[in-house]
Amino acid sequence: MFKPVQLFADWLVYGVFGLGRDTLAGGALNFFVFDTIKIFLLLAAIIYAVSIGRTFLPPSRVREIILTKSRFAGHLWAAALGIVTPFCTCSAIPLFLGFIQTGIPLGVTFTFLVASPMINEVALVMLFGMFGFKIAALYALSGYVIAVAAGLLIGRLNLEHLLEGFDPAKRVQNAALGADLPWSERRDYAREYTLDILKKVWPYVLIGIGVGAWIHGYVPQDLLARWAGADKWYAVPLATLVGIPLYSNAAGIIPLVSALTDKGVALGTTLAFMMAVTGLSLPEFMILRRVMKMRLLLVFFGIVGAGIMFTGFLFNFVMR
Amino acid sequence: MKKIQIFGGGCAKCGILYQHAEAAAKELGIEYEIEKVSDYEKIAEAGIMATPALAVDGKVKLEGRVPGVESLKALLK
């Protein structure tokens, strides 16, 4: 599918720039040109398609679907719908209140809150572009399972008394907006959303792929295996912790991580790291503090963090 | 008199929606009042789950996106 892009990269690097095919610089630059074009094409196409789909599923419609399901099915649906709903920290509170105050259980709400940022189309496109389909699918599946399991567990713990700052017993109507937009509006929305995201991520993608290409070409093979191989128990927790403050930079981090994986970092460690980047975010943590006590936040973070580490260990163990 | 409400916790997009809505109302030449609602409980009460959102005379017309002035005019009519 990306053959023309490869031909272009070959032509530019080996032809126009005159670098040798078997030189380090030639290899690294070729990798950079090819990956950059491929990633931007993929990002633009997928984000546009997903945004068009989204205009059929506004959050109030998502809520309506979840409301009609039984509790367990509610978890499964909440995680699935979380994938297609964009997550914006500034909408986290209305979203949270909007779930709780229409009677959606706390656990189901958390399932949605975990899935929505963790499994997003930018991360998936980057994973697909840099690691291939299998890893992207593994990531999505693990994220889905973690979201459902974390929500089920929080629901079981009966932590409703740890909500604060609003009245959880109050009920509001589900003012579902019709999804009956004209197609021109859908296209406008998708175009603007795609441009917004591309504008936000392009420097990170370039830097990420650039540094990744450098590592790819210049860092000796297996250099990192000594510190971050599958047999190092501390690699997964460490990767998870380091990932937390890197929120919203998934686009730049994934190319970097892809290069590191080439150099001996184990796959489970890589997955745990990327899930921590997308799924555990400090801004989200701070904004959610307005509607819940610190204890509930810590439980939420603890459970998701534990789920991420478990996934990391599991893949390191299975793939060894 | 149309009552236009812009819902949002003060993100950049909420400001843009406010400007677009005001421009649309002016171009239509209608009488209007416009207000910002940033209280989270009030936003939830209106049934809104994604900001920015816009309501006309108490009825939510859009959420989670910022259309251009032309499409807003259609909503305000």
Overview of the molecule:
The complex is a heterodimer of chains A (320) and B (77). The model of chain A has no long low-confidence stretch (mean pLDDT 87). In chain A, helix 1 (3-16) packs antiparallel against helix 2, helix 2 packs antiparallel against helix 7 (121-131) and helix 4 packs across helix 8. Chain A has 320 residues and is an all-alpha fold. Helix content of chain A is 72%, strand content 0%. Chain A has helices at 3-16, 24-54, 59-67, 71-84, 92-100, 106-118, 121-131, 133-156, 183-218, 225-228, 235-243, 250-262, 267-279, 282-288, 294-318. The longest helix of chain A is centred in the middle third of the chain and has 36 residues, at 183-218. Chain A has one domain. Chain B has 77 residues and is of the alpha+beta class. Chain B has one domain: 3-Layer(aba) Sandwich (Glutaredoxin), CATH 3.40.30.10. In chain B, 40% of the residues lie in helices and 27% in strands. Chain B is built from three helices and four strands. In chain B, helix 1 links the parallel strand 1 and strand 2 (32-37). The longest helix of chain B has 17 residues, at 12-28. Chain B starts with a strand and ends with a helix. The model of chain B has no long low-confidence stretch (mean pLDDT 87). Classes of the chains: A mainly alpha (320), B alpha+beta (77). At the A-B interface, helix 3, helix 5 and helix 9 of A face helix 2 and strand 4 of B.
Give the tags.
heterodimer; A: 320 residues; mainly alpha; 15 helices; 72% helix; globular; B: 77 residues; alpha+beta; Glutaredoxin; 40% helix
Short synopsis of the structure:
The complex is a heterodimer of chains A (320) and B (77). Chain A contains 15 helices and no strands.
CATH homologous superfamily identity of chain B: Glutaredoxin
Count of discrete domains of chain A = 1
Largest sheet of chain A: none
DSSP helix fraction of chain B: 40-55%
CATH topology of chain B: Glutaredoxin
Count up the helices of chain B: 3
Instruction: State the oligomer.
Output: heterodimer
The topology string of helices and strands of chain B comes to EHEHEEH
* Model regions low in confidence, pLDDT < 50 over at least 5 residues of chain A: none
Radius of gyration of chain B: 11 Å
What's the shape of chain B?
globular
Average pLDDT level of chain A: 87
- Biggest chain-to-chain interface with counts: A-B, 29 and 25 residues
Radius of gyration of chain A: 21 Å
The CATH class label of chain B is Alpha Beta
Element string of chain A (H = helix, E = strand): HHHHHHHHHHHHHHH
| Class based on secondary structure composition and strand pairing of chain B | alpha+beta
- In total, the number of domains of chain B comes to 1
